[in-house]
Amino acid sequence: MQIMLKNDLGFVSYNFQIMARQILVILSLVLCCYSNIYAQDAKRFEKEISNYLKEDASGIPANPILFVGSSTIRMWKDLEVYFPNKNIINRGFGGSQMSDLLYYANDLILKYKPVKVFIYEGDNDLAAGEKPKKIQKETKKLVNQIWKNLPETEIVLISAKPSLARWGLKDKYIELNQLFEKYCADNARVTFASTWSIMLKDGIVRDDIFIEDGLHMNKTGYDLWAEVIGKFL
Fold it and tell me: Does the structure show a pLDDT above 50 at 136?
């Protein structure tokens, strides 16, 4: 459609179909750039993921129970000691966010065909300024992707934990955990494992359950977690 509009210099011809195509091209370029940045950001974990792939080359056990997520999972190196006689695989990768786990879902979740998968993400996301609702949206995408490929797999979402280092963000953490809990309540196939209250004393995060950085847990902290997680095994 072409319209003649008058300005101080006279009539100017506007072809809105051409303008619309130009706008679509610009939007496509913006989305493409965003997608590339997103992928490049996730690729910062390629070396760590590659090491897991090499480890898997020797064989993957059948029907494992899978733990995935950020460094809180990665640093739980003795999971099999806490839960003996369970076929457990730990595929945590430090510093990760929910978007990273979504990006690597094929390599870190789907390929193992787990009977149950425990997911811990959201901690680093909030610290990086991500909004709880955005994290929840990414979580839903991940859950749907798992079920699309592995409809029988059980999923457990572990709550974002309180910590000394990030106690200033507690309101955001509580908001995210409430979103997780409601999502699980509305979906019988997803379970919520809350580790929040057991890490508090008189409403304040305990100071005896972390290593020096005030963020990652020591054995006492993992002992507390095992009490909660064990109920889902």
Answer: yes
